[in-house]
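Posting here for the record, re: zinc ion.
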Amino acid sequence: MGSLKEDWKETGKDLGGAFKQLGKSIVKSGATVVDKANDWAERDDAKEAARKEAEVMKAVEEREANKVTCPHCNAEIENAEAFCPKCGGKLS
Ligand SMILES: [Zn+2]
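Prediction output follows.
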């Protein structure tokens, strides 16, 4: 009655070996996929970074455009309204 047990043991060993091989090839192809995913991620990061940089540049440009220099105290005022927040002088 011990032979069935032995059979299972052998089958298990075989299966184990097969799984090991399968595992190896999965790990191998998995590593390739990870490499590819990293490539994509890096490309997306670069695109995203470029887009963010363009956004920041645009925001800076817009801020520069809104920036005025007070004719009374020469303070640089961002998003200035009618009066200088520093000296209270009227802006142009
Ligand atoms: Zn001023």
